Amino acid sequence: MAEPLKDHLQKSIKSFKVVQSEVQSINRVALSIDCVIFGFDENKLKVLLIRSDLEKYQNKWTLLGDLVKPNEDLETSAYHILKQRTGLNDVYLEQVHTFGEVCRHPGGRVVTVAYCSLINIQHHRLKIHDNEIHWHEVEKVTELAFDHQKIFDSCYKWLQKRVQEHPLGLSLLPNKFSLRELQNLYEAILNVKLDRRNFRKKFFSMDFLVDMNEHEQNVPHRPGRLYKFDYEKYERNKKKWSGIDF
Amino acid sequence: MAEPLKDHLQKSIKSFKVVQSEVQSINRVALSIDCVIFGFDENKLKVLLIRSDLEKYQNKWTLLGDLVKPNEDLETSAYHILKQRTGLNDVYLEQVHTFGEVCRHPGGRVVTVAYCSLINIQHHRLKIHDNEIHWHEVEKVTELAFDHQKIFDSCYKWLQKRVQEHPLGLSLLPNKFSLRELQNLYEAILNVKLDRRNFRKKFFSMDFLVDMNEHEQNVPHRPGRLYKFDYEKYERNKKKWSGIDF
DNA sequence: AAATTATGTGTTTATTTTACACAGTCAACC
DNA sequence: GGTTGACTGTGTAAAATAAACACATAATTT
User: What is the pTM of this model?
Assistant: First the structure.
């Protein structure tokens, strides 16, 4: 059952050479990044899409993506796309999933790494000059080009799950926000109605909100207090053990 | 601010051509799969590692991996690795993260997609003929070759989180198992001590365990009842909403 | 000033989690 | 065959959390 050591060494050497040649020449694939860029506006969760370049998919929308350059890290590439398309540097970005089915792209084998990013629409609204790019309500996104619908769906599901265990959702709001805005955000992302009082209690009990002693302005009703999220405190105190629960 | 339509069309056409050529020739990278294969034995969580092929990393251990073939889906490739190394077809497998730093691999640009798989050690133990492959206790895994330590660490953390919200951990046990075995598993994965009575209550209340009306055999003490996990019931009844909690 | 619309605050009840104790059964040993 | 060791199996009380629910207050609009 056990092979002699010599055989192993020979195997190892052979394997080494094969790896080297394969890395250097054949067996390569094109690699792309696709960004699912979420925004929050008019109490709706939205996603930034662009019209497809390819004739076959004309009039279909696609995610914002690009090929990864040889000297570019994946995250760097994703940040480039964001910078280029939204003008924003400082955005929340997280890798979600890699899609690599052989026939997923009509132009040949292209493996794509999907990133989710959350941006504050107000901060960048005026920076989109390309009128082939638009914000779409997530609920109305259908029939994207390529397999982008599938990618979008999985990123949206990912967000719905992730937002319950991590404060990334706050990246969609301005730095200062009212509790109502925060609740609207969660209701939009999760597509549920929440009890205002329990929501408030829950967030206050987590104790990561800092009262700014300011109030909303230009609202057609009583202005709410404004808060900011204390990310440092969150990092120090975040839950490690959530408990077994399927 | 808005460009004329003609400019856009020209841009689109140009962009299309660039995409085509880039996909077909340059800007390609080698793509690999690395599998973090977990097993559970002697009440310890273990991971399957192989000795590095490369001289530079001799005597270092690495994850089991391989380059993705041009006509191979990512998951297919991962299953191939598992079949080849463990002889098992029917294993739990999930993609975790893609690592693509430019300099992560000494042989050139290699982007690797990490998969986590969980296997039942008893089922395959005798099928590993390669004596350069060994099971390692996860707590003692250090200094793997390449960036494999980083990959392993993130997969281990992923498992610790995932096992609390999904029953994938049960793939590490035989089909029939006692509650003690199940608890040992969770204690090993999460590296905690749990209260036996509360653990039992929790699992029974989820109501996915089916009493087999059988008992453990060959244990030097009172045999415990054996259960199996009802995956279908789980799929029907699993939690959708876990609640906001950081 | 009256009406409208949100904000802001508790309380009560139900559910879930935690902490904790004792009786029962099998195997091994003497 | 009785005693011991080791683990199985159950229950309950207290604490913490989540869910359901109501009213007074403060701006804005009309």
Answer: 0.90
